[in-house]
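step: validate -> pass
step: tokenize input -> pass
step: predict -> running
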Amino acid sequence: MAKRGLVSALIWPALFTAAGLALLIALGVWQLHRLAWKEALIAEVSARVGAPPIALPPPAEWPQLKPADYEYRHVRVAGNYDFAHQVLVFRPLASPRGRYGGPGYLVMTPLRLADGSIVIVNRGFIPDDKKAAFLSGAENGPAAAEVTGLMRSPEQRTLFTPADDPAAGQWFTRDPAAIASAMKLERVAPFTIDADAGPDPAALPEGGETILSFPNNHLSYAVTWFGMAFALAGVFAAFAWRKRREIGAGAPA
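step: predict -> pass
step: emit ->
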């Protein structure tokens, strides 16, 4: 009778515990898979960024390119900047390289290639207090340029990203399709290029602004889930032991 009573007292707690353990262990395993994926991504990005620049894929290949195939690829391309159609994309924080504090802008300038196609180049960061001087044209530089930099997929919007207002010159994302549409540009690449840092550290825009740090907390997350599973198993074991003693003590001699 005591054994039957113990089984009856533990069956539902055991089922709920088993379900909780299955969920927690599954979450831990998923985080380990995410860890492997993130480490592979970091290694791949590091290899692409550190490689010598190669020729930009020809325009005929652009429609078939997938972001996973080209993101952070180090490339080289020559053309002429179209300063009349460049836009400034607002950034609320300091430049990633840390030279300038406070908000500023990424200078997105169309680079027209020899065949007439266009790649929009992120030439770098300018701080907000230098925006007026930059827009005067004094710091735009020569139109002809050979650019080396990293290929980037379009920046995705979030729920907190303000809407662009091209008429007011207000932009908040690196979106080549949106820029091309607003500026009436044709044959524009579906990606952008983040220009490398130039030889003059004082020159604006400040190139080399690509953020290359990737949070990788998946191992700690996995340890947390597995730890919670272990704790849950311990709680159930303690509960079962207490119930066994209670039922055993109440059984007839």
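step: describe -> Residues 73-195 form one domain.
step: cleanup -> pass
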